[in-house]
Amino acid sequence: MTAAQALPDSNPPLHEDRLDYTPTARSVTLARRRAARLVTAWGHPERAGEVALLVSELATNALIHGSLRGRLIRVRVVLTSAALRVEVTDPRGERLPGIRAAGGDECYGRGLVIVDAVADRWGVEPHTVGKTVFAELRLATVTPRPRAAA
Predict the structure, then answer these.
(1) Of 14, 40, 104, 116, whose Cβ has the fewest other Cβ atoms within 10 Å?
(2) Is the pLDDT of residue 1 over 50?
(3) Cα–Cα distance between 37 and 39 in angstroms, integer?
(4) How far apart are CA 60 and CA 21, in angstroms?
(5) How far apart are CA 112 and CA 133, in angstroms?
(6) Dihedral (C-alpha) 113, 119, 120, 122: value to the nearest 10 degrees?
(7) Do residues 37 and 124 touch, judged by C-beta distance below 8 A?
(8) What is the rounded CA–CA span in Å between residue 120 and residue 22?
(9) Each residue's pLDDT tens digit, 60-111
């Protein structure tokens, strides 16, 4: 896990979406589909599957480990010129996530292993109340080709 850092101010959001969800399994599905649809609409259909997977894993972790009755979970997806960032915020700041080794017969415990394998960077930002777990995917920068002399 890398140290938590916000996106640099020199790299402002080009697109941003934020929506609060009730902590239910259905909300994870809705958030995953919404994120994939948005990333495709923002011009990065090749990354939609990865973003959907990151949203699914982070939102599921928030649902299982970070939810409280009557409190919502926030999913935020941000596109900058350099990265796609997925954030999931929940109200349980005292329960910080970490990678653990899941046993072969365990049904749970692999979410952050998947996030770590897919994301270029991920981390946790604690708040006074709650926390945000984020994952970022770097975007390839396009270098302009030199023009031929006339």
Answers:
(1) 104
(2) no
(3) 6
(4) 12
(5) 10
(6) -70
(7) no
(8) 28
(9) 999 988 888 889 999 999 999 999 999 999 998 887 777 777 667 766 667 7
